[in-house]
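Records of this kind hold a single protein each, on a pair of labelled lines. With that in mind, the following record should read easily:
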Amino acid sequence: MAGRISSLRLTAAVGLPVSAVGLVIGARWLHAYGAGGVIAGVLGVVMVLAAMAIWVFSPSLSESGVVFFVSAVTLAIALGGAYTGVDKWVLHSRGVRAQCAVLDVDKRVERHTTTDAQGFSSTTTTTSYDHRLDCAGGRPRAMTTSRRLADKGDRLTVAYDPDGRVGPAPGGDISDGGTARWVCGLGLAVTIVLRVGDVLVHRRRGDGWYRTSGSNLTGRV
């Protein structure tokens, strides 16, 4: 029984983080290059939600509280790198640059609370800056960033997707997404190492550990 449980945990330790990252990459790629339409849009949303569910629930497979926390953070970093990497590649490959005047800048502060499968809640605060723009050619009309890039009356070079599938970004920040891919790969690798190490350490404790602490593992993956 213990061997079966640990084997399933090893599979989950590798498969779930890889699946989460793959779902995010697939969803963003489908959004950027897919045929479009309602079906493609719904499929993309489902893929992102599935990746988020994996991120929320897969830490429950960790027995160590430290591994639970750190691996959740590193997986979140990997998912962010995957998301950003695809968007950066899209703007790099087909983006158009425009000179824009800044009409106004609005600051937004949002708080999000999430609760994982073990009942732990965490609250994150994000600050966004909505830049309203007047660009040559009429596009884009707005750009949202994590930092204030300019003040009212300033001018910016903005890169945007002519197909309108990826949000605009500062022209100076456009790249092929190489850094984001490295962040994604490193975050994923650390997540897998932590999860696999957690399983192997607890498996070395033998059947006795599973009998004494595994009563609540019945039915768990």
